[in-house]
């Protein structure tokens, strides 16, 4: 049961974030459900194995794999019926407008709105006939030509396993060679983005809609990017350093 909870934790938290609800409303029922489910089999929870060893040591016949099932299924059924109303009544809900407690800092939605990411960050895919294929970022010179910035390049890798695809994230270094199916995260004016995509035959993955727009199939998921607002304390080693000298890209692999 402990291993089951550990396996399900990231899945349940992702579901809670997608549903804009407090993760505790799902995590507590997950913990209880795992404990109740452990009663149904011999290896479901360590105490069952302890009982098995005690019985065999005393000369009694060993238990079968599903010896606990008749009692366990009753506990699961009763526990589920009890948890449904209790979790609804006692577990906290997220505040109005989906915002957390003010003491927890700015939410992701606040940061996206404050820094204008919902209106000037777009994803472009390098398709097979794209003119970007095989070129480096410095050769494009899109900052001077279009006034755009390439923040990140994401690339899928299926070399290790034919059924598993690993997505690698890397900052857009000047020497990065672009390949087919690369995803470019580009910031700038939407009209310039469209012009850049048309000139180099790129596929736009995002429509010109804000993050708050509903029913947008191709809306950009900012939980997949990562953004933080950091305040420099008086004792910080970054004070009086330049952005380049601080080594944000080299040491921490982040953009300021």
3D structure, described in words:
The protein is of the alpha+beta class and 256 residues long. 41% of the residues lie in helices and 11% in strands. The protein has a 5-stranded antiparallel sheet. The protein starts with a helix and ends with a helix.
Brief account:
The chain has 11 helices and 5 strands, in the order ααααααβααβββαβαα. Strands 3-2-4-1-5 form a 5-stranded antiparallel β-sheet.
| Secondary-structure element string | HHHHHHEHHEEEHEHH
Strand-pairing-aware structural class: alpha+beta
Q: What general outline do the C-alpha atoms trace?
A: elongated
Terminal-residue CA separation: 42 Å
Task: Quote the beta fraction.
Answer: 5-15%
Parts with pLDDT < 50 across at least 5 consecutive residues: 95-103, 209-219
> What share of the residues lie within helices?
40-55%
**What average pLDDT do the residues reach?**
77
Question: What Rg is obtained from the alpha carbons, in whole angstroms?
Answer: 26 Å
Largest beta-sheet details: 5 strands, antiparallel
- Give the beta-strand count: 5
Widest sheet: strand ordering: 3-2-4-1-5
Helix count from the secondary structure assignment:
11
Set down the secondary structure blueprint.
Elements: H1 2-18, H2 24-37, H3 46-57, H4 69-90, H5 108-114, H6 117-120, E1 121-126, H7 137-140, H8 142-146, E2 149-157, E3 166-171, E4 183-187, H9 190-199, E5 202-204, H10 243-246, H11 248-252
Antiparallel strand pairs: 1-4, 1-5, 2-3, 2-4
Helix pairs in contact: 1-2, 2-4
């Amino acid at each position: 049961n402990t291993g089951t909870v550990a396996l399900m934790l990231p899945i349940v938290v992702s579901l809670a974030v997608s549903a804009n609800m407090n993760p505790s409303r799902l995590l507590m029922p997950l913990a209880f459900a795992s404990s109740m489910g452990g009663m149904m089999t011999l290896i479901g929870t360590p105490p069952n194995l302890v009982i098995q060893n005690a019985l065999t040591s005393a000369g009694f016949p060993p238990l079968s794999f599903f010896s606990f099932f008749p009692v366990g299924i009753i506990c699961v059924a009763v526990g589920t019926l009890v948890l449904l109303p209790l979790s609804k009544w006692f577990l906290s809900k997220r505040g109005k407008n989906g915002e957390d407690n003010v003491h927890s800092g700015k939410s992701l939605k606040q940061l996206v709105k404050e820094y204008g990411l919902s209106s000037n960050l777009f994803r472009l895919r390098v398709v097979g006939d794209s003119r970007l294929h095989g070129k480096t970022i410095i050769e494009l010179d899109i900052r001077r030509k279009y006034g755009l910035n390439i923040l990140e390049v994401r690339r899928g890798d299926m070399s290790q396993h034919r059924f598993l695809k690993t997505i690698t994230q890397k900052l857009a270094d000047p020497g990065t060679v672009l390949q087919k199916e690369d995803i470019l995260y580009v910031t700038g004016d939407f009209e310039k983005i469209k012009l850049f995509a048309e000139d180099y035959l790129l596929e736009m993955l995002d429509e010109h809609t804000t993050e708050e727009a509903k029913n947008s199939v191709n809306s950009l998921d900012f939980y997949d990017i990562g953004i933080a607002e950091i305040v420099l304390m008086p004792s910080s080693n970054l004070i009086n350093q330049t952005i380049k000298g601080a080594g944000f890209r080299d040491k921490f692999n982040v953009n300021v």
